[in-house]
Design a protein that fits this description.
Elements (H helix, E strand, L loop, with lengths): L1 H4 L7 E3 L12 H4 L9 H14 L6 E3 L5 H6 L7 E3 L5 E4 L9 H12 L2
Length: 116
């Protein structure tokens, strides 16, 4: 979806609180890496950079503040797709992932917003 629409819409991935930290008994990056929950913004930026590199993410990636303001404001954990209109208002709010992560549904909403 990013590759298809990147010239028509601003598309970002926002890295939020690690959903599966090793200090919480989990494995991050799809179960491939042990990562402690960052306690500083700098640590979170490093984990996000590793995530982008290790998983070869092409989408421009932003990093949430260490106090999780974006995650809390958008109820985004563990993952969620949002589409914002030019006016900054939410035009599409997907269900919580991973089960509610419906790319086809989000793409249809984006196409509608773009008039396609």
């Amino acid at each position: 979806m990013y590759e298809t629409y990147k010239s028509q819409a601003q598309i970002y991935l926002v890295y939020i609180r690690e959903a599966h930290p090793s200090d919480g008994g989990g494995k991050a990056f799809g179960g491939t890496k042990s990562v402690k929950q960052p306690t500083t913004y700098e640590e979170r930026c490093k984990v996000a950079a590793d995530f982008v590199k290790d998983l070869k993410i092409a989408i421009p990636t932003l990093v949430d503040t260490i106090d999780n303001k974006t995650m809390m404001a958008y109820s985004a954990g563990p993952d969620r797709i949002y589409i914002l209109g030019k006016d900054g208002k939410v035009s599409y709010k997907g269900e919580r992932g991973p089960m509610g992560f419906k790319v086809d549904e989000a793409e249809a909403a984006l196409k509608k917003m773009l008039g396609k």
